[in-house]
Amino acid sequence: MPIHLRDLQRVHQQSGAPISECRTALEAAAGHVDDALHLLARSKQVPAPIATDSNNPFDGPDWFTGPPLTRTALEAAQAALGYRFPAAYVDLLYTQNGGCPRRDCFPMQRPTSWAADHIAITGIRGIGGRYGIDIATEHTIHADWGYPRFGFVFAETPTAGHTVLMFDYSACGPTGEPRVVWVDMYGEEPEVIVLARSFTDFLAGLEDEPAHPDGVQL
After folding, report:
1. What is the pLDDT averaged over residues 185-196?
2. Quick one: pLDDT at residue 212?
3. Ramachandran bin of 146, using left for φ above 0, alpha for ψ from -120 to 50, beta for the remaining angles
């Protein structure tokens, strides 16, 4: 999308950022001035550490990383799915729009189809991008796999869709704070296990991979 000079000047004047940064922000925001200003404002903020000693909890391949998140894209995703995303999840996606987490194991108090004492995740989904939340196909994916209809999938696991992590809005409604649940599709009916009462608690509970052996089918 071509960048209009008047929009570039407006972003430069209102943000005070260098022209090169303003152009990059406008390109990431698909030409939307307000979104570009929002991206620039957030880039100046120092993110608080989330479940890691680094400011960025992601590491490794960018398979699940979408383009820089804008308010327009976020609002469109929430409207299409019918849920308000947890604030901590939104803050994380503004830091980086999805990715492979540094800490990718969550301890369990009971065996699962993955392992005796933990589950593993391969990526936290962003909005858009190759493996992010794609509104055009999200409902089809749910129908094909038979995932519960109480929320949406926000994280993938090594089982290629047979197990996923979802936000569960069944107790709080579409605008509340959802629980984080593990959904196992190996049986005749989905098995749902509550992992954490919030996304913040889920992130805080993640552990490094070396803490656990590789998962196996039990």
Report:
1. 94
2. 54
3. left
